[in-house]
Amino acid sequence: MSAKALCRGLFALGAIPGILAALDSSFFKLFEIIEKDVVIVGGGAVGSHAAIRLKEDYGKSVLLVEKEAILGGHVDTYYDKGTNTPRDYGVQVYFPYQDGMDFINRFNLTLEQGLAPRGETTTKYVDFKTGKELSGFVPPDFGVQVGAIVQMYNVLTSKGYDKMVEPGFWNLPAGDKIPEDLLMPIGDFCKKYNVSEALPRMYESTGGGPASRDRNFTNVMTLTFLQSFSPGWMRVFFGEIAFYHIQGGNQQLYDRIQTRLGKDVMTSSVVLASERTDTGVNLIVSGLKGTKIVKAKKLLLAVPPTRENLIPFDLNAEEAAIFAKPTYGRYGTAVVKHASLPKGVELRNMPTSAVQNPYAPFLDLPHILSFSSYGNDTDLFSIGTSGNPYLLYGETASVATAQDSINKMAAAGTIPASKSKIEVVEYSDHGPGGYAVTAADLRAGWMSKFYGLQGKRSTWFSSNAIAIDFSTQLWKFNDEVLKRMIEQW
């Protein structure tokens, strides 16, 4: 049985309040008991980083629990079976932020500047709703867009907003002291500071993920948007700093972390139930290697604190009230094949209205952003997809959206017709998009209340849903979480 099947079949167990407290000692004798200083749930960028730092830098014993078979979360590399060529389809690049890149250097990996190489492609702009290639569409001027991003960066840094959001929200003013600029929709923010020309480039870079919550990209709260397009990332766009990929595939970093952690990792495993107190935590963890009882002094939840992810974690009334507030959509990436998709071509989804206004290329949900060929020498394409609501827009719905887009392009004669169905070579669920609360909730102190949970009931939180969503910035946010955890010890 896979970990995902276990999750579907048994996660409801975690919804039973006080399940651990109700079990007598004879129950625990049925399972192996693992005792650690820290148990980490989630083996993505945050959890993997935390496991290494706690074990190697702080001398703590750890157990890392991950539902997938490998570590890495959004970092996904597919190795072409014909050529063994690495195809990154999750996290594409790393960029310097403070000393964040030093973490990669621990693992004797080779960094190369720029994106991982892929074959040459030409771009066609197609409205996936109609299936028709756009006639007369002229993309926005690149220089104008970059100039607007520079101007926006200058606004953010001159007002000190970068210090409030990077790498996390520790320095965000409390409640009604949060600047109104950060609470207004990103479309309004850009109009106010005359930087609306930045929107197309920023939208493309974020993959539309933040908009999966609001359904309209320009309505995304500026504070939420900056998690996916941070001031630090803006510096890459106007050439102040470079970006890099790992030679041979970005997944290599997490493969080496998994090897180094060895038996301190439980992959293909999920938490079924928990008991969290001020003196430690107990978890029931089940996976391919059986069911274990994990006892630890601290718990680090390195997964987005969605209501779905928190089912097994015996929330108290304070926590339940806080986590009832956020809303979010869902986004993902995949490597796919289809007989109708032309090699060496990127089919980019563009609304017909963009012919008249190329600075508003925003798509309705659900959508596929593009079918991007890896080159003329392969039939592989990468896709990015966003949809709503969270529970309904998983892999099945994403694939259906992709197939529908292909069908419409074929019917319009944009691509050849074929009776074949889309083949998903690999799919990666990137989880919640646009995880956020309303401006009113933020003014009422939601963020302060959430960050105030850190350390309570021996539990700490760290993930891209509550910090900046770039690896090096997440790692620096994580450093602060771990520092505070150790200080509490």
Automatic annotation (TrEMBL):
InterPro entries: FAD/NAD-bd_sf (IPR036188), Flavin_MAO (IPR050703)
Classification via Pfam families: NAD_binding_8 (PF13450)
Gene Ontology molecular functions: oxidoreductase activity
Protein name stated in the entry: Amine oxidase domain-containing protein
The organism of origin for this protein: Apodospora peruviana
